[in-house]
Design brief:
Elements (H helix, E strand, L loop, with lengths): L2 H18 L7 H12 L2 E2 L6 E5 L4 E3 L3 E2 L6 E5 L4 E5 L2 E2 L6 E4 L8 E4 L8 E7 L5 E10 L3 E3 L4 E5 L4 E7 L11 E5 L2 E2 L9 E8 L2 E8 L8 E7 L5 E8 L4 H30 L2
Parallel strand pairs: 2-11, 13-20
Antiparallel strand pairs: 1-4, 3-9, 5-6, 5-10, 6-7, 8-9, 10-11, 12-14, 14-18, 15-16, 15-19, 17-18, 19-20
């Protein structure tokens, strides 16, 4: 055996010995385990774990799985342990469910179209490692509804402007300026009426639609119930009181004073009657 071959064998034995012995200071094993840790599948937990959706709209539950290799990403519905998707395939008869996985990304998002109240609950994004790892996402479902800002009772002085703002948490379908109607009592507010001074401002936002009703130079006849009626959500109402120069706080004070006066009068009459009966 030549000298070079002998030296090669000795060097090989040295590396095998040091690699299998902890604490040698050469860092062979730590380097390998570091690579293994880096390549082990994990969830890049940057997406919200609580997602809200409105009935009739779409919801996207996000899942970013890193270093999955030849493993599979699946989505499961927690309440009935039903596997909804595996890889890019759907395993449910409900066509509203699908996977969003643009190649070559790490995203495996679950999309639910036309969300229904029954869709609320916990969903799990899973990677079929051993043992299996998962990430839970909570879906909350809200009713499509309108909300009028402020109090249920609105007080304005005669001659001032009535301003009512209605927010709808869904987008109109199809989008149009007529997606929200306003009613005064049982009649649709007529912006072209001879009265004049009535206008509407509609704004489409990411979260839905905002409609603002303005009625200038308020008259006593403008009092009454105003209702915001979206074409695809529950309506909302407020009661408008046009005051003839009297502040609502004064009205409440006056009513309270009348009540107290009445109570004192009753007490005084009761006292007089009892005094007369005792004679």
């Amino acid at each position: 055996m030549g000298t070079k071959m002998l030296l090669s064998l000795l060097l090989h034995c040295f590396y095998v010995t040091t690699a299998s012995s902890p604490g040698t200071g050469l860092g062979v094993l730590p380097a390998l385990s570091s690579v293994e840790r880096t390549e082990r599948p994990y969830f890049d937990d940057v997406s919200p774990r609580n997602v809200s959706a409105v009935v009739g709209e779409s919801a996207v539950l996000r899942c970013r799985a890193k270093h999955i290799g030849n493993r599979t990403v699946s989505w499961m519905r927690k309440r009935d342990l039903h596997i909804l998707t595996s890889h890019i395939f759907t395993y449910t008869g409900d066509a509203r469910f699908s996977v969003l996985h643009p190649e070559p990304s790490d995203d495996w998002d679950l999309k639910i179209d036309y969300v229904q109240p029954r869709d609320a609950g916990v969903y799990e994004c899973q990677i079929n490692t051993e043992p299996k790892i998962n990430m839970a996402v909570m879906l909350s479902v809200e009713a499509a509804a309108a909300t009028i800002w402020g109090s249920q009772d609105v007080y304005v002085k005669r001659g001032s402007t009535i301003s009512l703002t209605c927010s709808v948490n869904v987008h109109s379908s199809p989008p149009s300026s007529a997606s929200v109607l306003w009613y005064h009592g049982n009649a649709v507010v007529d912006f072209d009426s001879p009265r004049g001074g009535i206008s509407l401002e509609t704004e489409k936002t990411e979260g839905g639609t905002t409609s603002k009703l303005l009625v200038t130079k308020a008259a006593l006849t403008d009092s009454g119930n105003y209702t915001c009626v979206p074409n695809n959500a529950h309506p909302a109402s407020v009661s408008v009181h046009v005051l003839n120069g009297e502040h609502p706080a004064a009205m409440q004070t006056s009513n309270r004073a009348t009540y107290l006066t009445s109570q004192l009068s009753c007490a005084f009459i009761t006292y007089l009657l009892s005094s007369m009966a005792g004679r």
